[in-house]
Write a structure and sequence with these properties.
single chain, alpha/beta, elongated
Length: about 450
Amino acid sequence: MSGANDRGRTSDAVGDPLGAAPDPLAPLLEVLLHASGLSAPDLLRRLREALPSAVAEVAESNRVLRDVASRRDALLAAAAAELRSAAALSLAGGAPRSSPEQAARFRRLADEIESALRAPHESAAGQASSATPRERPRILVVDDDEDAREALHALLEPEYQISTAGDGQAAVELARAEHPDAVLMDLFMPRLDGLEALERLRGDPATADIPVIFVSARADEAVKVRTLDLGAADYLQKPFSEKELRARLERTLRLSQSQTALRELAQTDPLTGLANLRAFRARIEDEVKRARRYGTPLTAVMADMDHLKPVNDTLGHAAGDRAIAAVAAVIRGELRETDFGARYGGDEFVLLLPHTTADEGRVLAERICARLKETALEISDRRISIGASFGVACLPEDGPDGAADALVRAADDALYRAKRGGRGRVEVWAPAAEAGPGPA
């Protein structure tokens, strides 16, 4: 009874300055009066001064977000339709550079994009999904305040897999090990603050695409702009509501999923499933910078198929494409998670092997070469052998500008030596060796 009487006295106190008519702010004032220590008239005055501009800012922000979401949804819907058309064309035999595996991959990407588009509408309508429940997204919570970490963990754990870290350095290490779907990170922490941690995440290809949402009480506009300039996905200012946190987190996860699908499509060679030349050029620059910064070895392997022209001339280019795809499949099967493989053009491939010496690269190339010699294709009742020659080069510890191009040229020189030496073999680049154009 005493609790009810106390609540009644609070309501009366709030209502006094407003006269007999009930005030729509009364429920909010009941909470704020207890927390602020201000008198009811002062609190009402401050709220009414602040609310109009705050409401207008929220309304404008929501309008902008709706416009951006509408344009994004239209783009993604068009991308999904194009993917399904490409898959249908491939299965109908109208796309000579595609394969059943690639068609299935196109359909899977289209499904993921359309699922991301449906998710917010199904949630708003309260529809129950009949699809198999997806694995809960993994969220990394980073804050040096243990109470704040535990509060976020308790709030999000029912819907997400939660990992926690107490500073920026631990966050970077956990992100590399677990590759979470998103990071909620405080700004000011020991060892490594949030901005430094974000820079390291963005500087590592393994973590560069993980979305980071900053969660901070800091209201400085310059700080917010700085986080967004460094690549943060969002900035959530404390104190915030549970609904706002969930809404921003879900929005970030949907955008990340859609961007990942589109980026993969744009950077993948459709015939081989390896990266395309554009993706390779971006990756090698990053890998060279990282190798220079940390003093670690970086090896490149160039591969060129042997005797593909007779296959094209005798059985047609569709058969040649199958042979190229078969070589790519063998290469993919030998790469580590940290390695990078790309189709360099035509029947040439290039591999980037971080933390790998030339001798270790030679071992990998010889293993791929041996596997190719054991692989054959059945095409038009004919058994077709496939093979390739390989050139290996390691990035020098010291070198001039343009090291990425020099590394590729060195591996290419070694490849031509392998071609001239009889094909189906591996050569390692040496500075004294001279190379010129070799046979195709």
